[in-house]
Write a structure and sequence with these properties.
Helices cover 70% and strands 0% of the residues. It is mainly α.
């Protein structure tokens, strides 16, 4: 007998799927998620996009990498205990198969 799925299960997976597709279109979105310094990263990304290849652009990309890591660590420190436990022991990715969820093959 198939397990009953609450409407919340479907809605949650729907939002996950939309987020995955959106992040697939713009890889930087993954850098902004769960990052306290995301607003600074956006500004820095805009500057980097406008620069021509060279030493300044290379240095700003290095600064961006550092800000990304610092912002993620700060976000994790502020997250609740359940989130921290999930980060420590959980899966690293969740893949949603829409056809499987709808009972199709």
């Amino acid at each position: 007998m198939p397990r009953y799925k609450a409407p919340f299960d479907w809605e949650f997976k729907h939002f996950q799927l939309l987020a995955q597709r959106w992040a697939g279109k713009d890889k930087r979105l993954q850098d902004y998620a769960c990052n306290i310094l995301a607003p600074k990263l956006v500004v820095l990304d805009n500057y980097i996009d406008k620069l021509e290849d060279g030493e300044v652009k290379k240095r700003l990309e290095e600064v961006r990498t550092l800000l990304k890591r610092i912002g993620e660590v700060q976000w994790i420190q502020m997250a609740d205990i359940v989130t921290n436990l999930a980060l420590k022991v959980g899966k690293t990715t969740i893949n949603i198969d829409v056809a499987k969820e709808l009972g199709r093959k």
